[in-house]
Structures are given as C-alpha cells and as structure tokens.
Write a structure and sequence with these properties.
The chain has 463 residues and is of the alpha/beta class. Helices cover 42% and strands 15% of the residues.
C-alpha cells in the first residue's frame, strides 16, 4: 500500500505520515469565528481538510479517525458585532454558526451524521482554559498583570520554531499590542478582564474572558490529550496563533508532543489580489450560491490548486469548473460507482495533491471509464448531494439582474434603518412580483427565487 506523505510545516520537510496509533488517528483544525457569513478564504481550509479527512478514513477505517474542528464563539469581533446589531451574543453566534453549516454543506462538507466528528464551542470549555492558565502561572510560564494573565514567551526556548523566526525577528516584523503591563512585547494574553457589559466568567484573577490562543490548546487537549497526530489550518494562523498554541501546550504538558504533523493551506486571492471589501473583490460563499453557482463548482475550483499553493480565484477558473461539473454530471448520471480509483488515492497520498487527483479524473473521463470517474468524483466530495443550483440552465439570472437585485436589497436595508417601511415594503413587493423572495433577519436580508413564477425573467419590471 502506498504510504501517505505530507509536507510538515514543523520543518518544511516532506515525510511519511506515521500515526501514533493507526486505530485512533486524530485530526484537529482551527474552525471559524462566528460573527458573519463565511467568505471564500474561510471556505478553502474547510474543503482542504475535508479531503484529508476522507483520505484518512479510507486508509485507516471510518471508525479509526476522529476529527475535531472548533467554533470560536467568544471573541472581541463577536462582542462588537452583537453590540452594533443590538442583539445577544448567543443569538448572533447561533445564527452565524447555522449559516456556516448551511454554506459548507452546499460545498459537500456536512458532518451532521458523523459520530467521529466533533465541533466544540469555546464557551463550553472555559473551565478547561482556566485550568490550563492556572498551571502555566504555577509553572512560571505566565504572569498576572493588571487583571490580565499573559504568557511569557521568554519562558519557552523553542518559541518561533514553527514559523522559523526568532523572538526578536517576530517583534520587528509583527504588529504587536503595546501595553505597559507586558514584560515583553511578544507576550500574549491568556485571560483578560471583562466590563459589566461584556461576557465574562469568574476566575482567580477576577471576572474576565479567555484570549483566543488558549481556546484551541484547551479544546484539543480535552479531546485528544497532550499528543495527537495532525493539526491543520490556514497559513495565516501559523504566526501567532499556532506558534502560541504550541508554546502554551508544551509548557503546560511538557511530556506530550502536542501536534506531531502540521498542515497549512495557503491563502486565497481574487484575480491575483488579496480579497478585500475596499477592492470590491470580496465574496462570501452565500454570494456565489445566490448567483446560482453550485457548491460542486466552488469545490472543484478549490481542489484544482494544491493546498500549499496560493489559490487564485478567477472567472476563467469558475467557467472551466462549470463546464467540467456539467460534463461529469451528464456522464455519470445513473451510473454505479466502481469504487475509488487507485490513481486518485495515490495522488492524494502525495501530500494531499487534489489537483493531481482532478487530473486523474479528467483522464478517466477521456478513457470512458465512467464507473471509476463516478467513484473518484464521489470520493472527492462531488455529486454526493443533489445539484445545488437554484436554477435550471434556461432560467439563469444574468449578472446585470443580480446586480440590480442586490442594489434594491441595499436600498431596502437603508430604508428599514430609518423606519421608512413604506419604501421597504414597496421594494419587497416589486421583487416578489417577479418571483424573488426576501428573508429578513437582524443581520441581513437574503433572497431566493422561483424560476416557475409567471414573471420570472422579466427583469425590466425591476427598473
């Protein structure tokens, strides 16, 4: 059997994956901070590590692999967003977590029926975090200052090993929070005080809340102990988040290895540029789904680039994915799978080379081996759910109409913000007259459509 190899971010070396226990392979991945819709950059690691999870289960057995991906539901961004919307933090995080699940399910990532997948919420593990912080203070790796508890990076000699930088280099190249109570500019917060208006928990250092980095260390320990196999996440988390996880985990549990293999996916760009609202190239997964782009098409674009390479999202790649998805769907319709082709598995065993696996599927299609094509596509998470397009090919909404719909929704949102409900209702009724239905909540208005509506397609009625 071909061995699985990975490029371990710990040393940037390609090596064979040897689990601690083949009967209990453990994978931990940093999950979303839930305060808004997931954008394309958020979705890439979800798909990358879904492919890894599928591979590990195939090689070691479905019951022998455990996957934990956390939900960060306590964070300053969450507090600020909830305050701006004048809703409770619990309501915001519950709603946005459900959005995340819905959007990722559309991309073929749905673990609702998987007993070996766990999704711990940070707020359920505050006691574990407090225990860890107390141990770090007792061991001299953390100190208390003005109601804060901070980790002392000088107390851990290997700090910076993951990112390959010294503490002095990190200070020079990083934007660090300057605070008079820090002994070293790189020291990071384990616990911070909360005001009466902010969420908080009682602790030895007063009412407060955890820092971000301690959350993943505590949750991974709660599920996997002091040593586990793989830790994954986006490359932007390598420093400081993953560097800090290693430091606090190794100092708290010095006899363990923490994560033995580290896998990081590179970042996503749009048309060669960093995704940014100011550049007008910022997209959420829901934005694309609402335009009738299927989850299979989005997933295929993601998998067509190796996870360790920057992924450039372009219209050309999306159009290519549409052609491929439609072709493969037609070829495999009603066909029974012959199982996962070894060529596809071997490609994935080579440092999770999904782009090579896609090339193998193209070759199977060219040879007419449709049963193998079906098996390989299914293994990669394609075509395992009904076509997620909200439209048929002959009921497509042109981009000009989509732009007009979105513009009207923004006008309606502005009208509602000043209590001009007469205008807001008029816009809603106008959209409804051509089969566009709005769904409102405290954060946003989303839309769906009925291609069978008698006026569907009469975009001139929106003018």
């Amino acid at each position: 059997m071909t061995a699985i190899t990975f490029t371990n971010s710990k040393n940037q070396q390609r090596c064979e994956f040897v689990p601690l226990n083949p009967g209990n392979v453990r994978l931990y991945v940093c999950g979303p901070t839930v305060y808004d819709r997931a954008h394309l950059g958020n979705a890439r690691p979800v798909v990358v590590f879904d492919v890894l999870y599928r591979l590990l289960k195939h090689v070691y057995g479905h019951e022998c692999v455990t996957y934990a991906r956390n939900i960060t539901d306590i964070d300053d961004k969450i507090i600020e967003r909830a305050a701006a919307l004048e809703i409770s933090i619990d309501r915001l995080t519950t709603m946005t977590t459900e959005w995340f699940h819905q959007d990722m399910a559309a991309l073929g990532v749905d673990y609702r029926d998987d007993p070996n997948f766990f999704e711990p919420r940070a707020t359920d593990f505050v006691a574990d975090m407090l225990s860890m912080i107390e141990q770090l203070v007792a061991k001299g790796h953390a100190y208390v200052a003005e109601g804060h508890v901070l980790f002392s990076v000088k107390s851990y000699s290997d700090y910076g090993a993951l990112s390959g930088r010294t503490v002095d280099e990190m200070i020079a190249g990083a934007r660090v929070e300057i605070a008079p109570y820090k002994r070293n500019p790189m020291d990071f917060v384990l616990w911070k005080p909360s005001t009466e208006e902010q969420p908080g928990w009682d602790s030895s250092w007063g009412r407060g809340r955890p820092g971000w980095h301690i959350e993943c260390s505590a949750m991974s320990y709660a599920f996997f102990g002091d040593s586990f196999d793989i830790h994954g996440g986006g490359g932007d988390l390598m420093f400081p988040h993953h560097e800090n996880e290693i430091a606090q985990s190794q100092c708290c549990h010095p006899n363990g290895e923490f994560a033995r293999y580290w896998l990081h996916n590179e970042m996503l760009r749009v048309d060669g540029k960093k995704m940014s609202k100011s550049l007008g190239n910022f997209f959420t997964v829901r934005d694309l789904l609402n335009q009738g782009i299927s989850g299979d098409e989005i997933r295929l674009v993601f998998m067509s680039t190796h996870y360790r390479k920057p992924m450039n999202w372009t219209e050309e790649k999306l159009e290519q994915a549409k052609v491929t998805v439609n072709k493969w769907r037609e070829l495999t319709a009603g066909v029974e799978s012959s199982g996962t082709p070894e060529t596809v598995l071997d490609a994935l065993k080579q440092d999770l080379n999904s782009s090579l696996a896609i090339t193998e599927l193209h070759q199977l299609a060219a040879k007419g081996d449709i049963e193998a094509l079906k098996g390989g596509a299914n293994f990669l998470g394609l075509f395992q759910t009904p076509d997620q397009k909200q439209k048929t090919a002959d009921a497509a909404i042109p981009i000009s109409a989509i732009n007009r719909i979105e513009s009207l929704i923004k006008q309606r949102t502005a009208a509602r913000s000043i209590s001009d409900y007469r205008l807001a209702d008029a816009i809603r009724d106008n959209l409804a007259s051509i089969g566009i239905t709005l769904t409102d909540d405290v954060v946003e208005s989303t839309w769906s459509y009925d291609p069978d509506h008698p006026n569907f397609g009469r975009w001139e009625l929106l003018d």
